[in-house]
């Protein structure tokens, strides 16, 4: 019997708490907000499927121990630590994209309004999606990269699978000045997308690193001649067009010219899933978790190890 990655990690967590940590079913039920009968069924299923034998075994693709470790350490709703054969960027993008697609297939329900950002990993996610519950989609920001990787293409591809309405944003992620941003936001098509931000039920976002640089938004800022100033202000990461320092604090430097969901709106989304990894993004992912803007993480196992080994 196949199961999605979220159910697999939850089953691994319940089994770990019961068989390894010695927690009773009632204690686990109270901890997770489940009935003790539900916990009992999960444990029975874990034994039936062979997840529990003498020890708790892991998935070939998802490291259960690291996933549970991330979820517990950082208080995340979901955490998936994906095992990859190497740390080559294109390998990580493909592996994370595939698992993220499986997760969305598992957790998206009919009537959801999904929000997507751009990014190479989310482009991979879109390419691996084969089915979704009927739902609408909105881009959470404008374009900050090549056509094949930008949000319009991601929205188009995911929208075909989801079957609902789509609202792309045909604009750059950041523009030269606030006047231009205001004019673009008043465009009827763009304002339609912006008006949906407060209704998003699940957000799927990429993570950009500024230290070291691995971000299409960083490249845009460099073209505008403002990247060095933003780095001097402590920027290490971005979610959508929200800039973050190493402690997860928001650096409000481009908000007035950003064509994107705001930090406040992102924080109000019931679940924001960050998808990203690689050796250059450890600090950025840590910053995103500290910010409180994301609820769930899909990352690679080596980055998960680095996060769990850190003291902060």
TrEMBL record:
Keywords: DNA-binding, Transcription, Transcription regulation
Molecular function GO labels: carbohydrate binding; DNA binding
Ranges for domain Sugar-binding: 64-309
Annotated InterPro entries: NagB/RpiA_transferase-like, SorC_transcr_regulators, Sugar-bd_dom_put, WH-like_DNA-bd_sf
Gene3D superfamilies xrefs: 3.40.50.1360, Winged helix-like DNA-binding domain superfamily/Winged helix DNA-binding domain
SUPFAM superfamilies according to UniProt: NagB/RpiA/CoA transferase-like (SSF100950)
Similarity annotation: Belongs to the SorC transcriptional regulatory family.
Protein name: DNA-binding transcriptional regulator LsrR (DeoR family)
Species of the source: Lysinibacter cavernae
